[in-house]
Amino acid sequence: MAGLGTRFLPATKATPKEMLPVVDKPAIQYVVEEAAAAGMSDVLMVTGRNKRPLEDHFDRNWELEEALTRKGDADRLARVNAASELAAIHYVRQGDPKGLGHAVLCAAPHVGDEPFAVLLGDDLIDPRDPLLTTMADIQAQHGGSVVALMEVDPSQIHLYGCAAVQPTGRPGTVRVTDLVEKPEPGTAPSNLAVIGRYLLDPEIFTVLRTTEPGRGGEIQLTDALRHLARTPECGPVHGVVFTGRRYDTGDRADYLRATVRLAWERDDLGPEFRSWLREFINDPARQPLRPAA
User: Where does the Nucleotidyl transferase domain lie (predicted)?
Assistant: First the structure.
């Protein structure tokens, strides 16, 4: 999570991109809620400079809690306390932003020899689609590592890590035989993109320690997973092909779409918001905004 969030400047000049609100919660809270819902009670955040607001958000705020208690505002008090009660949350700084593989390697002292999950803060998975639970089932059955995959338009696959796969006989599950980070146009082995959910065998740390910088001069997690997939004695790599609801908050347009979709479906906000949005879209007098002269 040590990225600079340059696509959201100037909003992210002093605010971590993970703290940008999606409706009324920061994006990172949705990710921690997903981990907690899958039974993961110990969370390590790999952070960088200017990420202190993440720690503050998941900590207690005694002054605010006391003020809400005095007002008798039990609803807001519960929402404030929810973030600090999700899991035991720890933090480690990445230091130099050397890529996702390096960020994962920073977690090695905390993780030890246990399988672990990696959840990227830019990807929000709808809680009605329990992707992590499905991935955990596959890992329990086959061992090794499991990655989340999603079909994308072939014209967009060069923006992602891409998997070559073989069928397993289980619908929605494939054996990963190779991985390529952001393949050159026309060279991708499939249209299955790796999205931001991984369940990893601790053997990944051994591989990452000897993985040379790859695309972009960074240590790529995709390159380490490629080694595991192509080395049978390291354990298999499987993929779960996700067809549910995913919200990419790392892109400005997708961030707006995620906010609209989640607000639309909220019981407390949805009815009024849906009514307003329909009127807004169908208003014949509405004209596109033009920049001021």
Answer: 2-260
How far is CA 240 from its chain centroid? 15
CATH of 114-248 given 3.40.50.410, 3.40.50.2000, 3.90.550.10, 3.40.1550.10: 3.90.550.10
1-97 placed in CATH 3.90.550.10:
yes
Which residues are 88's β-sheet partners? Answer: 42
Q: Which residues of the chain have pLDDT under 50?
A: 1-2
- pLDDT, position 64: 95
**pLDDT reported for residue 2:** 46
**Residue 217 pLDDT:** 82
What span, in angstroms and rounded, lies between the C-alpha atoms of 267 and 288? 30
287: three-class secondary structure by DSSP: coil
Q: What is the pLDDT of residue 291?
A: 59
Return the structure tokens found at 98.
Answer: 């050397």
